[in-house]
Amino acid sequence: xxxxxxxxxxxxxxxKRWLVKYTHGCTVNNGGYPCATCTIDLLxxxxxxxxxxxxxxxxxxxxxxxxxxxxxxxx
Length: 75
Prior knowledge:
This protein is mostly helical. It is 53% helix and 0% strand. The longest helix has 18 residues, at 5-22. The model has no long low-confidence stretch (mean pLDDT 82).
């Protein structure tokens, strides 16, 4: 199913609110997003491992963080 731009923007806004909520209100980055430290702490608490189980050189946390940066238009 194809998403419209409005749906995409709503999804980004919803994700941002969710991240802020579960990083205890951290909004220090551009546009009011949580910082890397708070976001990574949340990801670890949610069970994301810092190193991939099969591919040890892959840092899962960094991959997710870079994905958030791309969604924010910063990378």
